[in-house]
Amino acid sequence: MSRPSQLALIVLVYTLGALIALRTVSLDLLSLLGGLTALLPVAVSVHYVNEYADYQTDSLTERTPFSGGSGALQRTGLPRRFAWRAAWPTLGIGVTAAIFCVAHGFTLVTLGLLGSIAVLGWQYSVGPLALVWRGFGEVTNAALGGLLLPLYGAASQTGSLSPTVALAMIPFTLLVLVNLLATHWPDREADAAVGKSTLPTRWGSTRLRQAHAGLTVLAGVALLGLTGTVIPTLVTVASIPAFVVAIWAFRRYTRQRSPFPSVAAMVTLALCQTAGWLWLLAV
């Protein structure tokens, strides 16, 4: 239920935010590791409540490696409440680690970002907001994974909000949104059956493809527009393979069940940009 592959991506994006911040400050390895120690249990708790909230739709849909939940409850026969009961102590571990970090130098800004990730992550799935059930799931998830997460990584080093990191992550955030259009596509019928309001349950395939293409183009335009002022040219050049994959993703979107092409575009951008920023710090 913890979805290890997603946790690995969380670590990558957290690190990416920190690397961007390290262009202006020196590495604080203890804070970097401390922030991650607090983040991972919080992220696991978010996954658990998502498994709890999506139990019905996950039981109805046909899973792919990137959609339909983990399938852990369905495979093991464990009750739905197991995920809910597991989420609370896991969140408690994250909160305890965060308090320890504050006692050893974390700022209130850094703690606030982690708290925002926890609150929005839970409210994505469960009440009182249950954002994904009310039509705000894609935007919320993109903001969490594309902006708040790297901002938290940067704040672990700077102790403050970084406008530079926020701007630099706009292209990635847009591809996260594209990825969500794709990962929600295979579950659209199951989601509609249980009343879960995602964009693929409300829009037809033509409109979804237009949104997929438009967001991908906007991500590329944003990348080019930020090059030289916020994003170094080397990082932009390193990002090119992700947009090659994104073209393939558009061609396959709504024409195959698996969201793999769109997932691959998003992950490729995260990997390539991390490599680019890391190279700049090393030279």
TrEMBL record:
The primary site where this protein sits is membrane
Q: Where in the cell is it found?
A: Cell membrane
Q: In which pathway does it act?
A: Quinol/quinone metabolism; menaquinone biosynthesis
Residue ranges annotated as coiled coil are none
Q: Does the entry feature the keyword Protein transport, yes or no?
A: no
* Record keyword Zinc present: no
Q: Name one Pfam family in it.
A: UbiA
Q: Which GO terms describe its biological process?
A: menaquinone biosynthetic process; vitamin K biosynthetic process
Q: Per its record, what are the GO molecular function terms?
A: prenyltransferase activity
Q: Which residues cross the membrane?
A: 7-25, 31-49, 90-119, 131-152, 164-182, 217-250, 262-282
**InterPro entries of this UniProt entry?**
UbiA_prenyltransferase (IPR000537), UbiA_sf (IPR044878), UBIAD1 (IPR026046)
* Membrane protein topology class: Multi-pass membrane protein
Of the GO CC terms on this record, one is: plasma membrane
**Which keywords appear in this protein's UniProt record, sorted alphabetically?**
Membrane, Menaquinone biosynthesis, Transferase, Transmembrane, Transmembrane helix
Q: Spell out the protein name for this chain.
A: Prenyltransferase
Q: Which PANTHER family match?
A: 1,4-DIHYDROXY-2-NAPHTHOATE OCTAPRENYLTRANSFERASE (PTHR13929), UBIA PRENYLTRANSFERASE DOMAIN-CONTAINING PROTEIN 1 (PTHR13929:SF0)
